[in-house]
Amino acid sequence: MKHLLLTIFLGLGAICSAWGQDLPAVTLHDEAGKSIATRSLIDGKTPFVINFWMTTCKPCMKELEALTDEAIEWKGSFPLRIYAVSVDDSRSLQRAVAMASGSGWEGITPLFDVNGDLRRALNVTAVPQVFVYDANGKEVYTHIGYRPGDEAELLRALKNNAK
Amino acid sequence: MLLLLFILALLSPPPDGGWGKLSGALESNSAYYVDDPAIGGRINKWGSNNYLKLDWQRDSLSAGLQAEWYPQALVGYPTELNGAGLSSLYIDWRHNFIDITAGSFHEQLGSGLLLRTWEDRDMGINNSVTGARVSVRALGNRLSFKLFSGLPKYGVWPSAASLVSAADLNAELGAVSLGAGIVDCASLRTDSSIATLAQAGGFTLPGHVVSWSARAAVNAGGFTARAEYVGKSPDFYTELLPAAHERFTLKGGNAQLLELSYAAGGFSGSLTFRRLENMTSRIFNTTGTPSIANTLNYLPALCMQQTYMLAGLNPYVTYADGEMGFQGDLYYIFRRGTKLGGRYGMKLHIGGCWIDALPFALPDRDVAYLAYRDINIDLERRWTRNFRTIFFVSIQENSPTHGNRKRTDAQNVFVLDALYRFSPEFSLRTEFQYLYSQELTKDWMAALLELSFAPHWSVSVSDMYNHGSTGVHYFNVSASYTHSSFSVSLTAGRNREGMVCSGGVCRWQPAWSGAGLRVHWSF
Question: What is the 8-class DSSP label of residue B79?
Answer without folding.
Answer: G
